[in-house]
Amino acid sequence: MDSTSHESVSKILVKIENAFNPINYDNNLCAIQRDCNGLFNTHKNEIKSYFLHMVVLNFKKAKNEILSLIQLSNRIYAAWLYASKYKKVGVFPIRDNYIKILESIDELIDELILYNLKLNEILPLTKYSFQNTKPRLKQRINLIKDYTNLEDVNQQLISVVQESLLAVIKNKTLIREELCYINNLLLSLTKMPELTTESFEWFLLQHGFNSKRFLEYYIDKSNQQMLDDSSLHKQIENILTFQEQLYCLVPFQKSRLNIKIPSIIDQLLVYYKDKKESLNQRLDIRRSEIQDAKLLEANDKVMFNIPVAQFSLLIKLLMEVNLIPKENVGKTFSFFAKYFKTPSANFISSESLQKKSSTVEFSTARKMKTYLIEMVNWINKNYNTSGFSD
């Protein structure tokens, strides 16, 4: 693009701004603006070629130049509002002139963006276009609650969707990509069959509905489902199920409500990953607590310096000579298992202890006999009972 063309386009745009953002409002203004509208339309192809050359060859420069064009439109629109508010002389007869130039600029921008759709992601609507679009868009969003295919959907979820969309158009500016997204979402929604709450949630996930409110809604719901299962293992299993479902989910489109933040699926996957790590940490802590409790319990037990098999025979002997009652054998063995340990077993199963007392091996009985003889000999030695018999 040569400098002559650049200078020519710049002069046309300067004339347009001077005509539509004037210092003085006089009787000649209407004619001046009408001439400028004609000038813009006459040289529209030249102006378009000037910008199009940059769109194709220099994206960064094209972005800045088109932003300047948007800012020009915004200044013209502000001048019109100012003149209307303060009832400047001759403002009402020239209303059509303002509308024509503002719409001409919007049409030019629309045509240029077709050659590089990436511009949609960064360029806002002009204020004139936004103010015309906003009321119609707001009305369409408010009608979502009346969609017949959403009669079985939870009203809380419908409110989340409406409030999220309304929050976008409450901003001072609206990025073109945001407008495209909302229009496509509403159009797709009207074409859907009857939806349940769950199928509507999947619809929003697949359409990249990444509003903060929907993220919070979905996390709260999944957390509630996990809280219904008190087991940490079950909660981790639920998270794995959630993750598998999200990994298998195929997005309907690459665009999303808020292009400045990650997709809703990516945000949920990050959340579930962190949640699973947190649950695993809690599980490790709980395991440590149980292990510490077992160690503490083991330290409080009385040591018997004999193997478990011999210990079980000793208990049986105490019952056989009626030193311990036989009324509740199971309870007796449970008591010894709970409060005693052996060198090789800090934790003794009461069932195992009782079973071993019923199936005594010869070597166990012989060793126990040796202990008993040693006990008798000790008594004889220390209490002079060797010469007495009962």
Features:
390 residues; mainly alpha; 3 domains; two-stranded parallel sheet; 16 helices; rod-shaped
- Give a count of the beta strands, DSSP E runs of length 2 or more: 2
Helix content: 55-70%
Fraction of residues in β-strands: under 5%
If you compute it from the alpha carbons, what radius of gyration comes out, rounded to the nearest whole angstrom? Answer: 42 Å
Shape, per Cα inertia axes: rod-shaped
Q: With helices defined by DSSP (H or I, 4 residues minimum), what is the helix count?
A: 16
Show unreliable segments: none
Query: Quick one: biggest sheet?
Result: 2 strands, parallel
Average pLDDT metric:
87
Enumerate the strands of the largest sheet in spatial order, edge to edge or round the barrel.
1-2
How are the secondary structure elements laid out?
Elements: H1 3-20, H2 29-42, H3 44-57, H4 59-85, H5 95-113, H6 127-142, H7 155-169, H8 176-190, H9 197-206, H10 212-227, H11 232-248, H12 264-299, E1 302-303, H13 308-320, H14 329-339, E2 340-341, H15 350-358, H16 362-383
Parallel strand pairs: 1-2
What features would you describe in this structure?
The protein is mostly helical and 390 residues long. It folds into 3 domains: 121 residues; 154 residues, no CATH class; 82 residues, no CATH class. 70% of the residues lie in helices and 1% in strands. It has 16 helices and 2 strands. A two-stranded parallel sheet has the order 1-2. Helix 11 packs antiparallel against helix 12. The longest helix has 36 residues. The protein is rod-shaped and about 145 Å long. The mean pLDDT is 87.
